[in-house]
Amino acid sequence: MTPTSTSTPTSSSTEVASPAGRRGSLGPIGLVFAGGVSVQFGGALAVTLMPRAGALGVVSLRLLVAAVVLLLVCRPRLRGHSRADWGTVVVFGIAMAAMNGLFYQAVDRIPLGPAVTLEVLGPLALSVLASRRAVNVVWAGLALVGVFLLGGGDFGDLDPAGVAFALGAGAMWAAYIVFSARTGRRFPQADGLALAMAVGAVLFLPLGIAESGTKLLDPVTFALGAGVALLSSVLPYTLELLALRRLPASTFAILMSLEPAIAATAGFLILDQALSALQAAAIALVIAASMGAVRTQVGRGRAKDVS
């Protein structure tokens, strides 16, 4: 990537304008999927860590380690940025910290699958609000049916506080999508992400210390927390930031509908949470919606090429 910010991203219409561009148009889709796999398996690992460090402690470790890694790798410039640039980074960091904190409070009270199912409603709502194409409403509606089926069709037996935390995390997830895209346009490479992660870590660390104290210094706990940070923050957020430079927010938000399916798979493999026939059908609906979003995005680029 070149070290410029506003001129670095190439529009999706240009990317699809040639045969090579059409083959590369699936690149950001692959980035989103890889990020989803990483973050959900990291989330499953975080659930196993919570008895040792608490929900706030896990979030603090995740943000702190991720911030250190990204700052060392990216070494972002602190000078030469406008007030608007810094404002974008700060809001991005706040949204990131709030999204993580609320989500881990949710999975501390309700199972991973339903928590992600409720959380993904935020990106789905964003996809409907941000899209200017009627077909995206169809894909969002199909995905919405799928996420509710994945939750068993009834969330009434879940802890109300856990449900509220998951919905709040969904709202912050929508904000994360918006400000991740803005940050990617204003800062080169992953510099903005590194700075935003540092903001989130500084804001959240006092909460983690207050809840977990010296437990955070335990070598095993810290090592597991570092693993969660790499799987759930460093890798997926970097991939998503790169993807959002080439995907519209509405398409990206619908692709987030894959998260409950990935979370259910991670829960089955790591947490022994079996899938029912209804949940399997829900996964199929969610994947169908995501595939539809991909085809819509690629088809839109081809239509521009023809015109």
Which key features would you list for this structure?
307 residues; mainly alpha; 79% helix; 0% strand; disordered N terminus
Give an overview in words:
With 307 residues, the chain is mainly alpha-helical. The chain contains 14 helices and no strands. It has helices spanning 12-15, 19-24, 27-53, 55-74, 83-107, 112-119, 121-130, 134-150, 160-186, 191-212, 219-244, 249-255, 258-271, 277-306. Helix 3 packs across helix 4, helix 3 runs antiparallel to helix 11 (219-244) and helix 7 runs antiparallel to helix 12. The two termini are 29 Å apart. The relative contact order is 0.22.
Number of helices: 14
Distance between the termini: 29 Å
In terms of per-residue confidence, which ranges show pLDDT below 50 for 5 or more consecutive residues? 1-26
Mean residue pLDDT: 78
- Secondary structure: number of strands: 0
Along the chain, the helix and strand elements come as: HHHHHHHHHHHHHH
For the largest beta-sheet, the strand count, sense and barrel status come to: none
How much helix is in the residues?
over 70%
Portion in strands: under 5%
Rounded to the nearest angstrom, the radius of gyration is 19 Å
Q: What global shape is seen?
A: globular
What structural category arises from helix and sheet content?
Answer: mainly alpha
Condensed summary:
This protein is mostly helical and 307 residues long. The chain contains 14 helices and no strands.
